[in-house]
Amino acid sequence: MWNWVSDQVFKMLWLNELAGKLVELVGLSLKSRLGSSLQFFIFDTIKIFILLSVLIFTMGVIQSFFPPEKTKVLLGGLKGWKGNILGALLGTITPFCSCSSIPIFIGFTTAGLPLGVTFSFLISSPMVDIASIILLMSFFGVKVALLYVAVGLVLAVVGGTIIDKLGMEDEIQDYIKKMEASAAFVEELAWKDRVRFGLDQVKEVAGKVWPYVIIGVGIGAAIHNWIPQSFIQNVLGEGNPFAVVLATLIGAPIYADIFGVLPIAEALFSKGVPIGTLMAFMMSVTTLSLPSMIMLSKVVKPKLLGVFIGICLVGILMIGFAFNVLPI
């Protein structure tokens, strides 16, 4: 029963077969590069948008129970590793990319929350969320999905703890410190309002991410069918000791969320790229994208920005190398 659920619900093999039939209807062979690429593109695009809509709606409804004001109250009384754990966990139900997490990070900072807690949130929010669990299960299976989420949460907690111990509160930009925290009244929503909020989230997030999904699926299709496997394995395969470093550096300048990254990771996985290298690539893209770092530089001073980037880089590299060695 679980195999059937995994194949038909999460991996949507029925949709892959349907995409293949559509390609054959237009006279293309699935054995040809063009036909196989078109099948990959149709299948992954439709699958991602189905999952995206369902997941964003579900997370939107959950998120309606945790508006920023209530979240500040929940986190305000916690310090140390307990606060970091809760900050990381709350990051799993918030926006899907790092750029949209930064305004919430500013709100937490102006509310006077401990710096370590806010950074645990900032690391966790784009890297690990409920959506990533389901999406990773649909592409790579349960084990990889759970491992990715587990190590992502550990990195968020450890990173926040280190920043807290360093005592870098003075490294927040001065204008952020002068901002006053809002004391908005938290209104209890009716279920119809929560549903409406979930639907609005689908419209808003899908409207922002669809170009990156299309680009990601297109790149994945090209990797899957047009780039020789020998080339991919030479660059990112087990034979290259610097593959994890290279994957991390390649991922950092790219701006995308989990929806845009997974088609590329799936194609690389099919070419024999080890799971640790893929984890490093995905974490680098979602956490250290160049636009996000530019936005964050307007909020924190260079020293704290450098520490944040350094912690994330070291953590991502350690995770990548470790998972390439472990038998998974």
TrEMBL record:
Membrane topology: Multi-pass membrane protein
Highest rank taxon of the organism: Bacteria
Ranges annotated as spanning the membrane: 40-62, 112-137, 144-163, 209-227, 239-265, 277-297, 304-326
Entry keyword Membrane: yes
Any Pfam family: ArsP_1
Keyword annotations: Cell membrane, Membrane, Transmembrane, Transmembrane helix
Location(s) in or outside the cell: Cell membrane
Main location: membrane
Family: Belongs to the UPF0718 family.
Name of this chain's protein: Permease
Lineage, uppermost ranks: Bacteria, Bacillati, Bacillota, Bacilli, Lactobacillales
